[in-house]
Amino acid sequence: MPALSHRITTLNGDGSDGWDVFYRARAMVEAGQDVIELTIGEHDIGTDPSILKAMYQSAMGGHTGYAMVPGVNALRDEVAARVQAQSGVPTRRENVLITPGGQAGLFAAHMAVCEPGDVALYIDPYYATYPGLVRSAGAVPRTVATRSSNGFLPERDALEAACDGAASLLINTPNNPTGAVYPRDTLQTIADVVTAHDMWLISDEVYDTQIWDGAHVSPRALPGMVERTLVIGSMSKSHAMTGSRIGWIIGPESAIEALVDLATNTTYGVPGYIQDAALFGLQAGAELESEVAAPFLRRRAIAETVLATQHVVRMIPAQGAMYVMLDVRDTGLSGEAFANALLDAERIAVMPGESFGASAAGHIRVAMTVSDDRFEAALRTLCGFAAGLATAA
Ligand code: PMP
Questions:
Q1: Using CA atoms, how far apart are residues 310 and 307, in angstroms rounded to an integer?
Q2: What's the mean pLDDT in 270-289?
Q3: Which CATH number fits the domain that encloses residue 134?
Q4: What is the band of 41 on the pLDDT scale with cuts at 50, 70, 90?
Q5: How would you classify the pairing of strands 166-172 and 200-204?
Q6: Which residue range is the domain that position 377 belongs to?
Q7: What is d(CA 186, CA 116) in angstroms, rounded to the nearest whole number?
Q8: Which residue from 206, 207, 230, 242 has its CB within 8 A of the most atoms of ligand 1, so it is best to mutate?
Q9: 309 lies in the same domain as 241
């Protein structure tokens, strides 16, 4: 066959994409083994039946044709009102593009602000798709390192050092994988740096309803930032609608107009019945969102209790999202070696920190996505396993 494009064959960069443990665990499950999977960010509940009913009624009511490419007006208005209420920034329908999930929004945002070959920055540790989505958009990925000892928050010096030739900076708060919620002063530092370098800020806020300590601050609300910030939102995490593929981009009107052109020529919008279901979900209000988020807050408390009983594994304080990061360096193993050994010995699957970047080396990410009992038992086993390694080391 003719050659595939360089762009697509180099999408994952070189070497492993860090998902080996995940695929190995899946193969073990398929072979009938009882593996506790604490790998990907998928809720242990499905989409609420009331949302599914709205989806069904919309489809049966005929909303199955091409929908408006920017999104149906009612949903754009609802998202605008929600963003305005949450951030205090005046937001209108014209500032909103509905996308097939946050992932598509992240890709489109980079397409909109990066010329081919421009550097696109993001913070390490990062959500695993960031390097690939930057390359998909024809930009060049560059990471900004953070330190575990500083809660994986980005620092001014590291940001400044990375900016040369960069068109954009992508941040994520609440953060996957670290659970960090960026405080206002960190966001102000970020705003100062991107403004000084005349860069775009792309703010991935898909976990904004999962805050355990403090409050979610959108950097779009900081002085002067509304004209250089694109916010990525999604119903995947807030409403357990991961499979429905529905999210949005918020930005300046002219940026959204350009992004509508991109959508017209790529996705051609999002199914109308999915949009109607999303509208129903948003209108259902905060109670449903709290219900979806509650298990993770409960399980974070379980993790804190279990981890407090030992001194080998250190928990990075998690203020939001559905994961906890554990520092396993005292076992003498890398995150990847630890995750592989834990899977083999105890049938517990976690993600190696290294899958999320060099800054997370020696850590593992544990998704809080199994029942409380199973989660607690898995953590106890994990800590016992780590203690055994530390003694042997
Ligand atoms: N950003 C982050 C940080 C994520 O963790 C995810 C999904 N795990 C996404 C974006 C994409 O979510 P979706 O496309 O389902 O909205």
A1: 6
A2: 97
A3: 3.40.640.10
A4: confident
A5: parallel
A6: 6-46+287-392
A7: 29
A8: 206
A9: no
Domain boundary among 284, 304, 327: 284
* Three-class SS state of 335: helix
Length of the chain: 393
Cα(306)–Cα(98) distance, integer angstroms: 41
Question: What are the tens digits of pLDDT across the range 85-138?
Answer: 999 999 999 999 999 999 999 999 999 999 999 999 999 999 999 999 999 999
Instruction: State the burial class of residue 381 (Cβ atoms within 10 Å of its Cβ: 0-12, 13-18, 19+).
Output: middle
Q: Are 155 and 146 in contact (CB under 8 A)?
A: yes
Token representation of residue 362: 């020696």
Fill in the DSSP letter of residue 226. Answer: T
Give bridge partners of residue 365 from the DSSP assignment. Answer: 325, 351
Per-residue pLDDT tens over the stretch 156-214: 999 999 999 999 999 999 999 999 999 999 999 999 999 999 999 999 999 999 999 99
Q: Does the structure show a pLDDT above 80 at 17?
A: no
Q: Helix or strand or coil: residue 236? A: coil
Query: Considering its fold, how many domains does the chain have in total?
Result: 2
Tell me the best of 237, 325, 356 to mutate to test the pocket of ligand 1, counting ligand atoms within 8 Å of each CB and taking the most: 237
Residue 160: its H or E element: helix 156-162
57 in a structural domain: no
Any bridge partners for residue 202, and if so which? 170, 230
Which amino acid makes up residue 223?
A: P
Q: What is the pLDDT of residue 348?
A: 98
User: Is there an atom of ligand 1 within 6 Å of 260 CB?
Assistant: no
Residues 138/172, Cβ–Cβ less than 8 Å: no
- Is the CB of 247 within 6 Å of ligand 1? yes
The pLDDT score that the predictor gives to residue 191 is 98
Average pLDDT, the chain: 96
Position 260 in a domain: yes
Q: What pLDDT is attached to residue 238?
A: 97
Same domain as 332, residue 256 = no
Do the domain assignments include residue 370?
Answer: yes
Query: What is the best residue among 107, 127, 209, 231 to mutate for testing ligand 1's pocket, by most ligand atoms within 8 Å of CB?
Result: 127
The band of 13, judged by pLDDT with boundaries at 50, 70 and 90, is confident
Q: Which of 220, 250, 284 is the last residue of a domain?
A: 284
Q: How far apart (Å, rounded) are the C-alpha atoms in residues 95 and 339?
A: 43
